[in-house]
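User: Sequence in, structure out. Go.
Assistant: Echoing your sequence, followed by the structure tokens.
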Amino acid sequence: MNPNASMHTWKIAAFGLFISIFAILLLNLGVVAFTVDTWTNNQTYTHGFLIFPISAWLIWRKRKILSGMLPAPQLPGLALMLLINLAWQLGHQADVMVVQQYCLIGMLIVTTWTLLGTKIFHRISFALFFLFLAVPIGEALIPSLMNFTADFTVDALQLTGIPVYREGTFFSLPDGNWSVVEACSGLRYLISSLTLGILYAYLTYRSLSRKLIFIAFSAIVPILANGIRAYMIVMIGHLSGMRLAAGIDHLIYGWIFFGLVMLLLFWIGSFFRENETHSEEIPETETGQKPANAFLAAAGAIVAVIALNGVYAGILDSKLQTPQPIDLGMPAVSAWQESSRPLFDWVPHYLGSKERFIRSYRRQGETVSLFVAYYRNQHQGAELVTSGNMLVKIADANWGNVGETESLIGIGTEQFRIRQALLKSTRGRLLAWEWYWVDGRWTSNPYMAKLLEAKSRMLRGVDDAAVVVVAAPYITSPQEASGTLGNFLRDSLPEIERMLKHAVKRP
């Protein structure tokens, strides 16, 4: 046995791991800063600060096992590192932060495997994959969670015998009005429960089936519990004549209720705890020394891949930095009278555009609102496709989105999909059609829009894109507005497309 040789191998592996991780963090400085800012300013994701310390503690628990093992570089990991860097580049060019965040964690995991070897990686794999929970995701689930909570609450109230009138996430009882807002979606409960459930399942159970069952309950229980919480809050308000549970107190009550539900879940889960005798055995101590050149070559290759990726990203980014004037012009629609006054007080919630306009058009009793927001040199906070851009902001005090679907429309020789939404306020109702224009194509799919943006940036060095929204009022049925929008687009769509193609041209 030569402990000095083993220690020397660990030191070389640790050095290679250090310089590789340093290069990864250098490439992802913007990603790290954005992630930490999200953890700091969004209470839904503050658990992110705990994920890395928990992961380090999970690895520390394995120290007796790891101390008797020798690192052994796995050069096939370099191929996987290339794929992850390609995915990162696509995410960077499409400005999809969550892809870059997942790729950052993926780079850390693959680097650890490449430099320490498969045996050591197997022992600490859960601690490494646990890092993925630090990525702040889930905002895309908010509308679905809000709708489920509204469905559950209204169904429960009707079963109780209380009459309810519902539109979207808004519903009215005889003694008051309620709405399911973003804070009531239950996303915080779901993320907290799932994170705790995954960690609890790993520490408590040995068999994969029990782990998966408990994790599944950790996802299902908070969603159902949030529905029960919302129903009980409405009932408290109803029975108290709207004196209780109508303000901030219902948020406090919600967290207390959630805590009790989680305690109950973990208490029940403890009855199925598996005997510790099934825990992993400590292997025989490995001896010897691995060649230092193999570790340094693997680390050098990782740093080279990351450096080339960063250089390529910088070259593509530099092509977008030169400011160019944008001339949207103004689509002249024959037979329609243009007005600079928008319909009602509603404007689509799209932030960070380089140029925008909103106009209304009238013809023989038909009224249409046209909104165009044009994006160029996109970056975080100024991008077309993001969870914050929508027809109606979730917290809007005046307008609400009470129903949204996808629809295929045909205008002349063109056919494309649009998102169709029903908007309401105390001032009236609107039918809105919304879609994107990216790389000369119409699409309503945000994922397709992001892919088209990445393709355009990587192949042509431009990322010009726009959103087009048309809306028309209706009184009783959305079909009244649907005909009006179809008539307007038959007359205006060629002119809108010409305007956008003209704007993308640069000197």
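User: And one key feature?
Assistant: The radius of gyration is 28 Å.
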